[in-house]
Amino acid sequence: MTGQFAVIGNPIEQSRSPELHYAFAEKLGIELSYQKRLAPLDGFEKSVTEFFAQGGSGMNVTVPFKEQAYAMCDVLTERAQIAKAVNTLWKKDGQLFGDNTDGQGLVDAILALNWSLKNTRILILGAGGATRGVIYPLVKAGAKQITIANRTLTRAEQLISDLESSVPEAQLNMMQLSKLSGEYDLVINATSASLSGEALVLPSKLKFDHAYEMAYGKPSTFIDQAKARGVPTAEGFGMLVGQAVEAFAIWHGVKPAIKEFL
């Protein structure tokens, strides 16, 4: 029987999840159906319940529903608990399971570039949900020090307070986005600056060896500035592929090779 899968969000037209899951399935000889589902902003829970009641096997969740998906789950993986957000759902023994594969997707995308994460010092720009979801996997992959830079320090403070007990092997720091400085192996842009077209200024006293932009498919002043310094750069399509690979492995028990789809 062909498994029924979907990605749910609002908006949803822009999602590339179906093409990725069909590509994985074709490569691995698995039959599946994978659709986009637009959920009303006030009808997410009903949409999810209906999907699984009609025989759905698994569902990916995109903006703005990841926190609502987290709240719906009966069982959460450790990384979903830490992220307080869920992007992958499945049913087992009548219970709704939830995971967050975004952070591992980022880690796998970075490693696919042959950038090392062992003993690294990482600066993450922004303290929103995207940052919350990636800290635990980055530390588990070897990051030793992560600094969170945000416009308002209270948001970064809250994030560190929530997460530091989960990653005792790493040092978590914070700074104001307007006062960027220091030396890092990797800078990750998790702000919405690229999406909103805002200018993000990287001062000369900020030194870094690699730059990763979580967004993809749009002009990025962050990437432009990193390229001007001659450092290796990458955009978020790899992270999208990586999180999809992780979700596919959860549902089908076999993991596609990320490098074949980048």
From TrEMBL:
Domain Shikimate dehydrogenase substrate binding N-terminal: start-end pairs: 7-89
- Residue limits of the SDH C-terminal domain? 236-259
**GO terms (BP aspect):** amino acid biosynthetic process; aromatic amino acid family biosynthetic process; chorismate biosynthetic process; shikimate metabolic process
What are the transmembrane regions? none
Named from the GO MF annotations, one term is: NADP binding
Which Pfam families does the entry mention?
Answer: SDH_C, Shikimate_DH, Shikimate_dh_N
Q: Which residues form the active site?
A: K66 (proton acceptor)
| Classification via InterPro entries | Aminoacid_DH-like_N_sf, NAD(P)-bd_dom_sf, SDH_C, Shikimate_DH, Shikimate_DH-bd_N, Shikimate_DH_fam, Shikm_DH/Glu-tRNA_Rdtase
Which family does the similarity line name?
A: Belongs to the shikimate dehydrogenase family.
Q: How does it assemble?
A: Homodimer.
Protein role: Involved in the biosynthesis of the chorismate, which leads to the biosynthesis of aromatic amino acids. Catalyzes the reversible NADPH linked reduction of 3-dehydroshikimate (DHSA) to yield shikimate (SA).
Q: What is this protein called?
A: Shikimate dehydrogenase (NADP(+))
Instruction: Write down the species.
Output: Acinetobacter ursingii ANC 3649
